[in-house]
Structures are given as structure tokens and as C-alpha cells.
Specification:
With 396 residues, this protein is of the alpha+beta class. It has one domain. The chain contains 12 helices and 15 strands. The strands form 3 sheets. Strands 6-15-11-7-10-9-8 form a 7-stranded mixed beta sheet. Strand 8 and strand 9 form a beta hairpin. Helix 2 packs across helix 8. It is flat and about 75 Å long. The protein starts with a helix and ends with a strand.
Length: 396
């Protein structure tokens, strides 16, 4: 914890140094040696920012592993959990015992396991910790046996009510229309490999497999929540779609073809209605933060404020700013570079029931490993396009 705090303090000092150099030469040509000094400071800033992100992720891994380990003590484990941990070894006896105990219909001889509810709940909890979008969006579901979860949304707003004479007829509403989002259990699949020696220790096996699944699913999920096309996968916030965030929510006014500006960001912020701005946040790639560190408002104050406290996000124009490695980071004409809006109201993530795992105990025998083929089912999509503004760079 102290390490992250110290690095954030160092990052704040670096930011101040970068801004000091920029302020010194704001209205005059910067000499070569100062440009070289600035480049070194920026490179150090980038490196430190990467280390902070990596350390925070590792801290989450350790915390999750510690919580699971506490629950994994033999005297606290339920019998089903113990049998499931043993079944992960691929031993036919343990697999058959687990299947018999739960009266499962899946084929034990083929290595198929249905994860117990506690395992899945811990997995989902780990996903919430690992994926930024799951932390700031609304997680709904599970989908259940219906195989889809419908959500009605307002496609076209109604006209305002009008004042009429006492005996006049009321004006009929003709503009208001509703649509329906369908969340479906899209499949995400992956094979992970774990040392047989490690798996032979049953209490450890379940925790190790779960932790590996968490971070494999986390990467796949976050990528789709950013840029998914909505076909057999979630619909991302950076994907222009009438079923999600339409192009009508793109804001490029004030930006250049290669960079965002204070005016451009303000235009994006205030293109979103007040009721959504109250809980709004920014989402962008880490490369965007370096650009933001140089931008001032009309009063000469820097608009991006780096966090120096643990578990506290950076802020941009008074709102939390989050970063994702899967957000776009190409700063060229007409490219998307950030999204601003109310994620808790406007973006839903839906998990399906259950988790299927196939134990591949022979396929990787030559490397003393066991493979685990797992299937995760879920979906995600923007449900309120008007709750967002997507920051876009200007045309060339």
C-alpha cells in the first residue's frame, strides 16, 4: 500500500515539474536542452504511470487470493467445495464423486464440471475488482432460464406538456417511442494451464484456477465493453451504434485533428444533461492522461488532477477519470479518444448463470500441466445513449 502511495506522490511531483517547464516557455520558443529535459520527464511519467497501474492490479490479485485462501481453509470448507477442488485434479474417482454428490447430468468421463455457486460467486466478485467497467457500470442479472433479459428504453423523447384552456382538448403525444435492449448469454471461452504439482494440493487448486479465470475473463470482458461490436459479444462504448451510443452523441467541436482541447472537453461535458452529469465519469486510455496533464482552463488552471491517495481516481473537470488499456489511443483525425457519462445508469453488464469447466488432464501431460477449458456467458451494452458523450478528434 505504501509503495503505491509513494509512487503517486512521485507522479504528482513529476506532473508539477512538467508543468513548470511548460509554464516557463508558454509564450516563447523552448530551447533544445529544455525540450530534452521535458521529454525525459514525460518518459519518466509514462513509466511511473504504468508501474502504478500494474501495482494496483497486483494488489487486487493479492487481496483476492487472500480472501479466497481464508475461505479455503479445510475446516471452513463445505463438503461440495472440497469435492470440487479435488475434481479439478482430473482424477476420475474425484470427478465421479463430485458428479454423484450433485446428481449432475454432465459427462464426468469427458472431464466436464459444473462449478458450484460459491465458486462462481467468488469468480464474479473477482471480476468486479479486476475490471474498471464492472466497478462503475450497473451489473444486472443473472439472465436465468429465459436465456435473455429485456430492458425497455426511451428511443425518442416526448414533447413537453403544454398549457391549454380549461375546456380545450388535451394535446395528444405522438413523438414518444420506446425500444427494447436484449441481453443474451454470449459465450467467452479460454483454456488455461496450471502445473499438475500445484493442482495436486486440492485446497490450492480451486483458488489457483479461479484466480487465473478471473484475469483471463477480465481482459476479454474489458476489451468488449470498450470496443465490442454487439454481435455474439457485448456492445462497447467506443462502438458507434444506434443500439448503444449513436454518432449523434459524438462531440468533436473545439478539438484539433490530433489532440483534445479544454474547449473540446467542456463541449463534451455539457452536451450531457444535468441529471447524468451528477454521477458522470470519464473513460480513456492511459496515453490520454499525459495529454491532459498539459491542458489548462481559461483561468490558467490545469484541468486534470492526478490522484495522490489510495483507492481514489484521478479527476478531470471535476469528475473521476478512469483508464483502460482497451480504450483507443490513436490520436488522429476523427478518432475516438474518450467517453464521458453516467455509466451506472447508462451501461449495463449482465452475467448468465453457471460456469462450465472441462478438465483436460492428458492434453498437456508432457509439460506436467492440466488444462482447463472454461465457458463464461454474459453480455453488456449501453442502455441510455443520451447519458454519454463520446469525445472525437476533429477532421483533418
Amino acid at each position: 500500500m505504501k509503495k503505491i502511495f509513494d509512487m503517486k506522490q512521485e507522479r504528482a511531483e513529476l506532473t508539477a515539474s512538467i508543468r513548470s517547464v511548460m509554464n516557463e516557455f508558454e509564450n516563447k520558443e523552448m530551447p533544445g536542452e529544455k525540450k530534452e529535459e521535458l521529454a525525459k520527464l514525460e518518459a519518466k511519467f509514462d513509466n511511473l504511470n504504468t508501474r502504478i497501474t500494474a501495482e494496483e492490479k497486483q494488489l487486487e490479485r493479492e487481496r483476492l487470493a487472500g480472501e479466497v485462501a481464508d475461505k479455503a481453509e479445510p475446516h471452513k470448507r463445505a463438503a461440495v467445495q472440497e469435492m470440487f477442488a479435488k475434481a479439478l485434479s482430473g482424477d476420475p474417482r474425484h470427478m465421479q464423486e463430485y458428479h454423484n454428490a450433485l446428481s449432475l447430468g454432465t459427462d464426468a468421463t469427458a472431464g466436464n464440471l459444473t462449478a458450484p455457486m460459491e465458486f462462481v460467486q467468488e469468480l464474479i466478485k473477482g471480476l468486479d475488482d479486476a475490471i474498471v467497467m464492472r466497478q462503475i457500470s450497473r451489473v444486472v442479472g443473472p439472465i436465468g432460464p429465459a436465456q435473455s433479459l429485456g430492458y425497455p428504453y426511451r428511443a425518442t423523447e416526448a414533447d413537453d406538456a403544454t398549457w391549454v384552456n380549461e375546456n380545450a382538448e388535451s394535446v395528444e403525444e405522438t413523438s414518444l417511442t420506446y425500444g427494447r435492449r436484449e441481453f443474451k448469454p454470449n459465450r467467452m471461452s479460454k483454456i488455461i494451464k496450471v502445473s499438475k504439482t500445484l493442482v495436486s494440493h486440492a485446497p490450492i487448486a480451486e483458488n489457483t484456477v479461479r484466480e487465473e479465470m478471473v484475469y483471463r475473463i477480465a481482459a476479454g470482458g474489458e476489451n468488449a465493453y470498450m470496443a465490442g461490436n454487439g454481435t455474439g459479444q457485448p456492445l462497447g462504448i467506443f462502438t458507434a451504434s444506434n443500439d448503444g451510443i449513436p454518432t449523434g452523441r459524438d462531440v468533436s467541436d473545439g478539438n484539433t485533428a490530433t489532440a483534445v482541447t479544454f474547449d473540446g472537453l467542456m463541449n463534451a461535458k455539457y452536451s450531457v444533461k444535468q441529471q447524468y452529469r451528477r454521477n458522470a465519469a470519464w473513460m480513456m486510455h492511459r496515453d490520454m492522461f499525459k495529454m491532459l496533464a498539459k491542458i489548462k482552463d481559461t483561468d490558467g488552471q490545469y484541468i486534470w488532477q492526478p490522484s495522490v491517495a489510495l483507492n481514489t481516481p484521478d479527476t478531470l473537470l471535476g469528475h473521476p477519470a478512469y483508464e483502460s488499456e482497451f480504450a483507443p489511443n490513436t490520436f488522429a483525425a476523427e478518432k475516438y479518444v474518450a467517453v464521458y457519462g453516467d455509466f451506472k445508469s447508462g451501461y449495463w453488464i449482465c452475467d448468465a448463470d453457471g460456469m462450465n469447466i472441462q478438465v483436460l488432464d492428458q492434453l498437456y501431460a508432457t509439460t506436467n500441466q492440466i488444462g482447463y477449458l472454461f465457458d463464461y456467458f454474459g453480455d453488456g451494452a449501453p442502455v441510455l445513449g443520451e447519458a454519454f458523450a463520446r469525445v472525437k478528434l476533429a477532421s483533418a
